[in-house]
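Action item from last meeting closed. Structure (471 res):
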């Protein structure tokens, strides 16, 4: 991790910067204060708007549509921006946006898998999502819509920067990069693999410098928590399965590039109205998922995002996650709770296995023994369980006959796997190594048993000894 990354996160932990300008607040009804189709300015009680402009001359509409925005001045010309506000109690499914603000530092440290993320402050982060002219990362793919969500002035503001035509790309990119540079961290969903590389390449092509900003991509922790729970970890699928939010009439992402090209050909932006709404919903879901993940990681057993405790399957995934982070004690407590809350049938064995691993790392061998014994008889973990039992009986209990018995059972299971997989072809190198290790273990156990028998034999029982006594 580079020095600039560390310094940027350390700044995020310091005192907040005073606001350079007043921001409009969301309305009290729970709806955005400015949406597509609302050309009215901010309420009279609100201070002047932010950098999206303030004068009537700055306001603009996309032709043939209800999309109202403002023109931002940049060194490269004007850039079109739409601003939308949401209250903190706005929900995506059952999870309010404010949930993310209550996550303690320990949750972010686990989500980001690095101690420096403990200083992450969501109120200074940018929640970022893009819509592009293609689904690949090649040089021909351009960003035509970029949404940036920020917690500002007691509400949540989304600014959407829209590329009205290709000649405006330098201004569009400059306005977007300026907005992102004000944040202390970037939060995305699959942004490390797609959104950020595309943005960086476009900035380089326009001879503009990409910002250096710590990046938290929620796709990876989402996969750790829900890969065994939902069929797909796409954002829209997690909305439905995790947040309980189902979009009605949402436009599929693969159709969005075609609509933008139709707009460029026709000059009519009406078909793009659902695209801007799609982008806003993605950002709202990103915030809600961040709150859910952060709460779950901080205290899995007490977490109740949106008022609902984690399921047994989610606790199982959190236990595995904590083991990966090197926290076996926390993992053991979470896995015990997962088994208590109940797991779907296929995951019960996995729960026992992970709990045995956690106990073993804590050197609680007698507790681990109980779970390995449960797994040793059948199922996908029976081979691993037999190997662990052989280790326990040989090195802890010093019960060599029992150790030989379970090691032989493990070898038989390996050989059965080979038969079921077919004898043709070259054996898997891992299978060959495991067979060799088991045979070596069995040979060692035979030697220990022979020495044990020799020590236990009564004096004079050996023929040679009897002959010596006779002499």
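Sequence:
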């Amino acid at each position: 991790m580079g020095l600039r990354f560390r310094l940027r996160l350390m700044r995020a932990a310091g005192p907040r910067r005073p606001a350079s300008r007043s921001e409009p607040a969301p309305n009290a009804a729970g709806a955005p204060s400015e949406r597509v189709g609302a050309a009215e300015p901010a309420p009279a009680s609100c201070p002047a708007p932010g950098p999206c402009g303030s004068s009537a001359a700055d306001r603009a509409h996309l032709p043939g549509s209800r999309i109202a925005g403002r023109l931002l001045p940049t060194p490269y010309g004007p850039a079109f921006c739409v601003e939308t506000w949401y209250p903190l109690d706005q929900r995506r499914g059952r999870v309010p946006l404010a949930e993310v603000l209550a996550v303690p530092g320990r949750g972010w440290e686990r989500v980001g898998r690095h101690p420096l993320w403990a200083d992450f402050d969501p109120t200074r982060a940018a929640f970022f999502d893009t819509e592009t002219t293609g689904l690949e990362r090649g040089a021909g793919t351009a960003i035509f819509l970029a949404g940036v969500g920020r917690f500002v002035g007691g509400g949540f503001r989304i600014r959407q920067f829209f590329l009205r035509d290709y000649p405006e790309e330098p201004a569009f990119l400059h306005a977007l990069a300026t907005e992102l540079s004000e944040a202390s961290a970037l939060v995305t969903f699959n942004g490390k693999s797609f959104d950020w590389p595309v943005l960086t390449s476009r900035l380089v092509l326009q001879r503009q410098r990409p910002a250096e900003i710590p990046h938290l991509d929620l796709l990876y922790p989402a996969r750790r928590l829900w890969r065994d729970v939902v069929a797909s970890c796409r954002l829209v699928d997690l909305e439905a399965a995790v947040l309980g939010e189902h979009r009605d009439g949402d436009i599929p992402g693969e159709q969005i590039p075609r609509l933008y090209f139709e707009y460029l050909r026709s000059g009519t932006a009406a078909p793009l109205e659902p695209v801007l709404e799609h982008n806003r919903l993605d950002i709202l879901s990103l915030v809600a998922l961040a709150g859910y993940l952060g709460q779950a990681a901080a205290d899995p057993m007490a977490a109740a995002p949106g008022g609902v405790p984690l399921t047994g399957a989610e606790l199982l995934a959190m236990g595995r996650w904590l083991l990966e982070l090197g926290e076996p004690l926390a993992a053991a407590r979470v896995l015990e709770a997962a088994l208590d809350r109940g797991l779907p049938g296929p995951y019960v064995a996995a729960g026992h296995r992970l709990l045995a691993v956690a106990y073993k790392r804590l050197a609680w061998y007698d507790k681990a023994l109980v779970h390995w014994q449960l797994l040793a008889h059948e199922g996908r973990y029976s081979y691993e369980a037999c190997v662990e039992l052989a280790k326990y009986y040989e090195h802890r209990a010093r019960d060599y006959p029992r150790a030989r018995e379970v090691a032989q059972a493990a070898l038989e299971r390996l050989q059965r796997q080979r038969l079921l997989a077919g004898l043709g072809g070259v054996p898997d190198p891992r299978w060959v190594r495991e067979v060799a290790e088991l045979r070596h273990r069995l040979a060692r156990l035979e030697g220990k048993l022979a020495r044990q028998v020799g020590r236990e034999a009564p004096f004079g029982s050996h023929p040679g000894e009897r002959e010596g006594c006779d002499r």
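Note appended to the action item: The longest strand covers residues 77-87.
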